[in-house]
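Human: For the file, kindly provide a plain-text protein record giving the amino acid sequence and the backbone structure tokens, at your earliest convenience.
Assistant:
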Amino acid sequence: MTAVVNCFVIGGTRVLARCADQLVAAGVRVEGVFTDDPAATAWAAEHGVPVLDPRADLVAALTDTPVDYLFSIVNFRILPGAVLELPRVAAVNFHDGPLPRYGGSNVAAWALYEGASRHAATWHRMTERVDAGAVLLERWFPIRTHSTALSLTYETAEVGIALFADLVPHVAAGTLPEPVDTSGRERRFYLQSDRIADGGLIHAGTTAAEAERISKALDYGTFPNPLGVPTLVTAQGAVFTRQVRRIPREDPLPETVATAVTDSALTLSAPDADLLRD
């Protein structure tokens, strides 16, 4: 009789829950979920899977219950090499951006700020060097004109969940797909402490195109913002903004001039005029 493939999962959110559903459907046994996230906890309770402290001694846990795979899905804990070496096949992580170009934190925001035209969801092997392991699967998609950091993060999660379906047959067989060749790609890594445009400052030297990119990159809706709030610097002080949108003009002015002020918007005419919403 073929041995049942098993795994631990660490992380949270509905991304973990929906990927774990795919594992269970394929006959993979989930030995436990390291999480304190409500969505992941609810999934574990529904499936009778133990919920474990995500800050627990992972070496001890994986030594006591040997597994074939460790899946890291929306997990913000950096796992040491001693943990990553314990799964018999591999430790695999979901990353919400293309590698190695957008490694690290808040990569959807950085992609928008830098004007990237496309993005990707990635599943890769984990190594001690964060986001540096071999890419196992990736799926690219175009960045929409009106994408924000929040919407792009959500879209990447959906793509990642769908892409996981391509990984599951390998997992059920106790294997991995052939790695993607990324040897010719640029590598960048973004720290949690890195800040876009000094935290989102929009000043006299900021073009309208860049101001719009700043706004989209720092738009996390009602969720906690890890990077900062777009801030228009004026002679009267700083003005926090929620949105920046460009309005094309046929007769752009040589300098920035305020042409309209309302309770909800400040309209500026400039060489590349924009609309700033507070």
Remarks:
- The two ends are 65 Å apart (CA to CA).
- The chain has two domains: 6-190, 197-277.
- The longest helix spans residues 149-172.
- The domain at 197-277 is CATH 3.10.25.10 (Methionyl-tRNA Fmet Formyltransferase; Chain A, domain 2).
